[in-house]
C-alpha cells in the first residue's frame, strides 16, 4: 500500500506533467529546491511552484475545470491546487510583496530531475532572496539560507543577489553575519568584495542622520510579530510611506 508521501508525490507528478504538456512555465521552489541545492532531504506537506503573475490565472483556470479544487489564498502572491488532502502552492510573489516572479527567474533557472521529469528550479539567488524575508515566531527560513550559502556560496551570482536585495541590503548583511557566526571556518565562502561592499554601506550610513519617519520594516519579515509596532507603538510600515 502506498504511503501518504508516495500518494502526495504521485499527485505532484500528475499536476507537473499536465503543466509541461500545456507549456505553462513554472519553477520548483520550497523544500524540493533546497534539497536539490543542498542535498537535505526532509518530509514536506506540499510542493511550492513559482510562476509569473500573468500566468497563474491561466494555470488555475485549467485545473478549475477538472477534478481539482483551486483557491486564490491571497491575490497578491499565493494560490493553491488541491485534490483531497494533497495540494500545491502556486506562488507568484511573497507575502511581504518584496519579491515578484519575473522573466529573469526563468532565464537563470537550472534544471533538475524530480519525480522522473526534468524540471526547472527557482534560481538559488532568488531562493535566498525569498527565504530571507521569511522570519516569524512560527517559522524561520534562516537555516535554509545558511545551508544554501554553505553549499552554493562559492558559485553564487553575488552581483545578482546584491541587485535583488539592494533596497534591503542590511537584511542580506545580517544573514551573512549569521552565516559567519555559524560557520567560522567557512568565512571565505563569502567573497571579500561582498563584505567590503556591505561594510562600506554601513560606514556611509553611520555618517548620516536617522530617518525622521518612525518606520518598522519588521512587517516585511512577519506581519504578526510586528503588528504591535504599527497598531500600538506608532510605527509606519513601508507600504504606508
What structural category do the secondary elements indicate? alpha+beta
Give the overall pLDDT as a whole number. 92
Relative helix content: 40-55%
First CA to last CA: what distance? 56 Å
Per DSSP E runs of 2 or more residues, the count of β-strands stands at 7
Order of SSEs, N→C? HEHEHEEEHEEHHHHHH
Strand content: 5-15%
Radius of gyration: 19 Å
Total of domains: 3
The total count of helices amounts to 10
Give me the side-by-side strand order of the main sheet.
Answer: 1-2-5-4-3
CATH architecture of the largest domain: 2-Layer Sandwich
Plain-language structure description:
The chain is of the alpha+beta class. It folds into three domains: 1-122, Beta Polymerase, domain 2 (2-Layer Sandwich); 142-208, no CATH class; 212-241, no CATH class. Helix content is 44%, strand content 13%. The strands form two sheets. Strands 1-2-5-4-3 form a five-stranded mixed β-sheet. Helix 5 runs antiparallel to helix 6, helix 5 (124-132) packs parallel to helix 7 (158-164) and helix 6 crosses helix 8. The chain is globular, with a radius of gyration of 19 Å. The model has no long low-confidence stretch (mean pLDDT 92).
Amino acid at each position: 500500500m502506498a504511503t501518504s508521501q508516495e500518494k502526495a508525490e504521485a499527485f505532484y507528478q500528475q499536476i507537473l506533467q499536465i503543466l509541461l504538456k500545456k507549456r505553462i512555465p513554472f519553477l520548483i521552489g520550497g523544500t524540493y529546491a533546497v534539497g536539490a541545492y543542498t542535498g537535505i532531504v526532509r518530509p514536506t506537506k506540499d510542493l511550492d511552484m513559482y510562476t509569473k503573475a500573468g500566468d497563474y490565472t491561466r494555470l488555475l483556470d485549467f485545473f478549475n475545470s477538472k477534478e481539482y479544487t483551486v483557491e486564490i489564498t491571497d491575490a497578491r502572491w499565493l494560490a493553491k491546487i488541491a485534490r483531497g488532502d494533497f495540494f500545491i502552492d502556486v506562488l507568484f510573489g511573497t507575502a511581504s510583496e518584496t519579491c515578484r516572479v519575473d522573466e529573469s527567474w526563468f532565464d537563470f533557472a537550472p534544471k533538475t530531475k524530480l519525480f522522473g521529469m526534468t524540471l526547472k528550479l527557482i534560481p538559488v539567488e532568488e531562493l535566498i532572496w525569498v527565504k530571507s524575508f521569511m522570519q516569524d515566531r512560527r517559522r524561520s527560513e534562516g537555516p535554509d539560507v545558511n545551508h544554501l550559502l554553505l553549499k552554493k556560496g562559492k558559485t553564487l551570482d553575488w552581483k545578482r543577489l546584491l541587485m535583488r536585495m539592494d533596497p534591503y541590503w542590511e537584511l542580506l548583511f545580517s544573514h551573512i553575519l549569521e552565516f559567519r557566526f555559524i560557520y567560522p571556518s567557512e568565512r571565505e565562502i563569502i567573497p571579500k568584495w561582498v563584505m567590503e561592499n556591505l561594510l562600506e554601506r554601513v560606514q556611509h550610513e553611520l555618517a548620516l542622520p536617522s530617518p525622521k519617519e518612525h518606520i518598522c520594516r519588521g512587517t516585511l519579515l512577519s506581519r504578526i510579530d510586528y503588528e504591535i509596532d504599527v497598531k500600538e507603538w506608532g510605527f509606519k510600515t513601508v507600504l504606508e510611506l
